[in-house]
Amino acid sequence: MSWRYHEYFPPSRPKAVKGGIKAQSKRGGFAESWWAKRWIAVLESFNIGARLGRGKTYARSGQVISIDIEKGLVKARVQGSRTKPYEIVIKVKPLSQENWKKLGKALASQVIFVAKLLSGEMPKDIEQVFSETGLSLFPAKRGDLVTECSCPDWSNPCKHIAAVYYLLGEEFDRDPFLIFKLRGMEKEELLDALGQTDKAGRKEKPEGAGAPPGEGEALPPAEPIRSDSEAFWKGGELPDDLLGEVRIPPMEAALMKRLGKFPFWRGDRLLHEYLEPVYLNASRYSMDVLLCETPPGNFNEEKG
After folding, report:
1. Where in the chain are the domains?
2. What dihedral angle (degrees, nearest 10) is formed by the CA atoms of 280, 285, 288, 291?
3. Which of 104, 105, 202, 293 has the highest local Cβ count within 10 Å?
């Protein structure tokens, strides 16, 4: 079969999916960070032609039903034109424990690497550390990456695999530690190797710490328990400035925005875009109740 025929494999119309995983990038590329772009570049290096475009369409329209990431393995289900979803398997060759020990020592020696990883950022020079130990962070040769799909298209990767690949790129943007997981190292294990977990960084307690009463440093005197039960349940008077300055936050859903993208989101809009009106109405309602302008009641009835 010629490459020209392979390039123009007849397109098919996939069955619509309700609640599928949708790409959060509206236009342009599927990755923002350099490490996610590097992952996408591996896919695009396969030169699978029009299937890349169809894979993008599948990723944006929510045809991917599920994605599960394990050490060295990604399993996914993608709805195509047939009734039964296609089963996707992406295998990435994990690094050995011995190689991870070498990498852990090399990475731990660079404070900037540890700091950036803890802040959720992949250090750009990290590939050099892998290279110096004779390894690679991303799949470097065909044997490092194996993809399978149960669809009838003999091209590998097909558009269904491409859709999963693009969504993985977005997920790597959110959590770069998933790239390490595909190479065989969980986030907690990596941080432990870098000496950043409680287990690795635990220090001996100072003398007297945790000792029973009467040993080591003296404990502060305990506050006596009041014997008047009525006064206990009634409580004392509260100061007028107990709550401090009360005002509506200048930015709605600030915490949600700070947390970033939701993993494998399935909505048409970003999560914080859905929640902003809820946060705003809740703030206004709480302010009215606090100022005694609205009696406590059903929030939905008061603010719709």
Report:
1. 3-197, 245-303
2. -90
3. 104
